[in-house]
Amino acid sequence: MELPFAESYKIKMVEPIQRSHRHEREQWIKEAHYNLFNLRSDQVFVDLLTDSGTGAMSDRQWSEMMLGDESYAGASSYYKMKNAIADITGFEFFLPTHQGRAAENVLFSAMVKEGDLVPGNSHFDTTKGHIEFRKATAVDCTIDEAFDTTLDHPFKGNIDLEKLENVFKKYPVEKIPMVIITITCNTSGGQPVSMQNIREVSALSHRYGVKVVFDSARFAENAYFIKKREPAYAEISIRKIVREMFSYGDAMTMSSKKDAIVNMGGFIGFREEELFQKASVFNIMFEGFITYGGMSGRDMNALAQGLYEGTEFDYLETRISQVAYLGKLLKDAGVPVQYPFGGHAIFVDAKRFLPHLPKEQYIAQSLAVELYLEGGVRGVEIGTIMADRDPVTRENRYPNLEMVRLAIPRRTYTNNHMAYVAASLINVWERRSEIRTGFRIVKEAPILRHFTVGLEKI
Fold first, then answer.
1. Catalytic site residue 250?
2. pTM, 2 dp
């Protein structure tokens, strides 16, 4: 008989988690002002809020932490990380930062100014936040196919070349400091970008004299999808695919809490020394000296090791197969999800799940709260609340997709947990007609409001 699929690791340590009762969860979420970010971790049974920094490190990563060099300047851990980044990405110049949004802050401080436009594929929340904080504008050039969750398209993260060139033609290129390619594209459902699209976006951008910057948090997962879905790369190794992807860019930002499988850390990679030197000034101001940048030596060691583990095919296949396992359970039960399944999460289409709720009542947030009440499962809204208000009109922005993201931490949960999550959401699906009202906002921050927003039930 054919041998069944099995995980590419075995478990060495466990962490207890506890179930709760619905009446407890009803009280907890009310006290949290219906914001899932405000819940305590011990009030959650299966936590799929994010895959950022929530994965399980390997024994080799823990071993590397014991070898960390905590020297302020020139630590051996810095050089270990530098060598790993150069080996895997091809970027010779880099700056360490404490996480991905810090990398964006440093790089955008050096590149983005008021009045600029930054085109890309569905910029994620902190990326758009850093752009708009500088009174610049993020321009979404994602292909239209990404916004049809029923459509089976292998690379829904792709940038539409016509949309992108229209931006280049409409505005002076001096006002366009970069094009951002997010790999994989989180906001559109953890969807990959094809190598062909990366190559074409790079060629088009460089023809107009515009730099290409990768938002690289899940670059290894993107490389896996290229290998599996782009025929020319079927026999190419993950690391060779990664090197080619990055060869088309001028810089990269990295939240290492994803594909480097660490709890904290990030970096910026540069092709040119001039931009590296310019950004170094801001790194010293915001993060720390350029050889530690807000990171401890032990974390740099774990990150360097994690970059190698995160680009192993067997690991990626195990990780992405678990995401697909959850997706299939939901899809087979009729639950509307973004298809094909993404690399790090299943995205539930809240508009199709609760079509009777008005958009002004925050459909995805309503669904995310119901899932928590049902089974103690914490997801996150990727919808109107996260989209923030228009910085000029201060009106709500209603995105094309209104999603609940179920982000799966790396090497953390078993497929039994995935079956539990699926059963919880299927129960909500079966009683969806009973969910008659959503929420209104009672307090919010002027930017990135979803982290701290306060809501009340209508």
1. no
2. 0.95
